[in-house]
Design goal:
This protein is of the alpha/beta class. Helices cover 39% and strands 20% of the residues. It folds into 3 domains: 288 residues, TIM Barrel (Alpha-Beta Barrel); 104 residues, no CATH class; 108 residues, Double Stranded RNA Binding Domain, CATH 3.30.160.270. It is built from 17 helices and 14 strands. The strands form 3 sheets. The protein has an 8-stranded parallel beta barrel, surrounded by 8 helices. The protein has a 3-stranded antiparallel sheet with strand order 9-10-11, covered by helices on one side. Helix 4 runs parallel beside helix 6 and helix 16 runs parallel beside helix 17. The relative contact order is 0.07.
Length: 555
């Protein structure tokens, strides 16, 4: 990298807007959404979608609730033209959906584009030409009046061909491409010329799309550009202000959200942010950012997993595991403190729902309820060597109904983490259960229960137990105020070093006739050492006895 950078690069000049209003505004309603997946997103693919893939993705976009969908550049290739014709001729476009097509300000391309739209109910013709100083100088070699005339001619060529689209509601969209790098005064001049040429009115407005084609400044500067532009429009009601942001500086979402505060009414973007270079705006992120603030975005993303599968199948792209809302690892926590907070938060939420209280979602580390997006709670916590007891306990409880006592969580958590550290990877619920079973339930050495019987006598319980110790079968007899006390006394009376039960709990595993019970017992030795044990059996009495031997085996 060059030092100092100022020898080669210069800061983008700020917009003079001393009375800017957008910083004090609050977003209260969703914008008009337009998906450009089938054009802008498709253009960015190493292998563009074929017609069948585009049809599948179009249907998915309709299911999401998009009412404006840019379907392609019909004049660019036979595939794009054929796709447009299939949508129309096979009646695939719902009556309330407008198909949008992109075209440059060239008469031959406009001719082919209009031809592709014959028979459509609702269409948006998206005209564009580049306007920035670099584009004017390097690409076109033209001055400002020539660029304005280019936009005027393109608009006129479209307007002259409208009679060929009788029966079609046609709207014009105009983009001064590279708006973000264009002088705001010139962007305003060329857009006013297009409005005049089209004859825009409040009943027939033009969509003025202001692209952040390449992010060249911080998102607040883009918001200033949009607000300045809106403030200077002569007939504001004759235009719908749209934004189309890219992500060159990694702030595409922020730029869009600030532009909405600046007065933009419409947003173009793609699912999951696919697009040229660093991508287009991710429509899902902006929509769900509104949703998490209690604003209905007007789009349906209640099955994000399925939508992601359609997207990946059609485009060949993959969604990053950490992608906001959509990524595989979004609703996960590996950190022990995060896991503990999520677990407690989810329990508090369930309690408030059971009490029929009106509670707002307020779970640590989870901005939205995963189930609203078709995600499952078992996805929330994953276990690796950085996880704590909370995550371990949560997975065991939610996936297998194993409700570890808190002190037992503290004992098993580090044991599980050590094993995960040895494996050097994340573990899933079934593996965690196997670790628990191996550590507690399946421990049969040196003690293993062969039989256990009890009978009541004078208010006490008498027990007879047959236990194998290191391969040798032994008989134990004892009494106490219950089966557990009787067995403990039998063992101690038979020469086992003294110990006492410090904690006992149990619960059912499953339901019905085949349900088992699991018991958890903590034994305390005279030197202060404690160990937990667990036993599983269809009889809660036998599960408790097995839990005692499990604790002794672990001592």
């Amino acid at each position: 990298m060059l030092k100092p950078a100022s020898q080669k690069y210069r800061p983008f000049p700020p917009i003079h807007l001393p009375d800017r209003q957008w910083p004090n505004r609050v977003q209260t309603a969703p914008p008009i959404w337009c998906s450009v997946d089938l054009r802008d997103g498709n253009q960015a693919l190493a292998v563009p979608m074929n017609v069948s893939q585009k049809l599948e993705l179009f249907d998915a976009l309709v299911r999401c609730g998009f009412k404006e969908i840019e379907v392609g550049f019909p004049a660019a290739s036979n595939t794009e033209f054929a796709f447009m014709r299939r949508l129309i001729e096979e009646g695939r476009i719902p009556d309330d959906v407008s198909v949008q097509v992109l075209v440059q300000a060239r008469e031959d391309l406009i001719e082919r584009t209009v031809e592709s739209l014959v028979g459509a109910r609702n269409a948006i013709i998206h005209l564009y030409n580049s306007t920035s100083p670099a584009q004017r100088r390097i690409v076109f070699g033209l001055e400002k009046p020539d660029i304005v005339e280019m936009a005027r001619r393109g608009t006129r060529w479209i307007r002259e061909r409208l009679p060929r689209l009788a029966g079609t509601r046609v709207r014009l969209e105009y983009s001064p491409e590279s708006f973000s790098a264009t002088e705001v005064e010139f962007s305003h001049e060329i857009c006013e010329a297009v409005l005049s040429e089209w004859g825009a009115t409040p009943d027939n407005p033009v969509i003025l799309n202001l692209p952040d084609t390449v992010e060249v400044a911080m998102p607040n500067v883009y918001a200033d550009q949009v607000e300045w532009f809106i403030n200077h429009l002569r007939d504001r009601d004759s235009a719908i202000i749209s934004v189309h942001t890219h992500n060159d500086r990694g702030t595409g979402v922020a730029a869009t959200e600030l532009a909405l505060l600046a007065g933009a009414q419409r947003v173009e973007g793609t699912l999951f942010g696919n697009g040229e270079r660093t991508g287009n705006l991710d429509l899902i992120t902006v929509a769900l950012n509104l949703y998490m603030h209690g604003i209905d975005p007007g789009l349906e993303f209640s099955d994000l997993n399925s939508l992601r599968q359609v997207y990946e199948r059609c485009t060949g792209m993959t969604v990053h595991p950490r992608h906001p809302y959509s990524g595989e690892l979004v609703f996960t926590a590996f950190s022990g403190s995060h896991q503990d907070a999520i677990r407690k938060g989810l329990r508090a939420w369930e309690t408030s729902r059971e009490k029929l209280e009106s509670a707002f979602w307020d779970i640590p580390y989870l901005t939205v309820d995963p189930s609203d997006l078709g995600r499952e709670y078992y996805e929330v916590i994953r276990v690796n060597s950085q996880s704590g007891k909370g995550g371990v306990a949560y997975l065991l409880e939610t996936e297998f109904g194993i409700e570890l006592p808190k002190d037992m969580q503290r004992e098993f958590g580090p044991i599980a983490n050590d094993e995960v550290d040895r494996l050097g990877r994340e573990v899933r619920g079934p593996e965690l259960r196997e670790m628990f079973w191996a550590e507690y339930v399946s421990r049969h050495q040196p003690w293993e229960l062969l039989s256990f019987e009890t009978e009541g006598r004078n208010g006490n319980v008498l027990c007879r137990a047959q236990v194998r110790q290191n391969g040798v079968t032994r008989q134990f007899t004892g009494d106490g105020n219950g089966p557990i006390a009787a067995f403990v006394n039998a063992l101690i009376g038979g020469g086992v070093p003294r110990f006492e039960v410090g904690h006992y709990s149990e619960h059912a595993l499953g339901s019905g006739e085949t349900a088992s019970a699991i018991a958890y017992i903590q034994v305390r030795h005279p030197d202060g050492r404690t160990r937990w044990g667990a036993g599983v059996d269809t009889s809660i009495e036998l599960a408790s006895i097995k839990a005692i031997l499990s604790a002794l085996n672990r001592s």
